[in-house]
Write a structure and sequence with these properties.
The chain is an all-alpha fold. It starts with a helix and ends in a 6-residue tail after the last helix. Keywords: Membrane, Transmembrane, Transmembrane helix.
Amino acid sequence: MKNLLAGGFLFVGGAIIMTTTQFGHVIPMIGAGCALLGFGMLLYYLFSDDGKY
């Protein structure tokens, strides 16, 4: 369950960071990477058997 929460926080936090425009173009790209990583973690832990296949 901890990994599911971590994936959710990464996805939401990355999506919020992705919307910032005052820090140049590097920070939104890092936010997009965090959001993609969090989304992948969410998909993995939602469709696997408690994180194990």
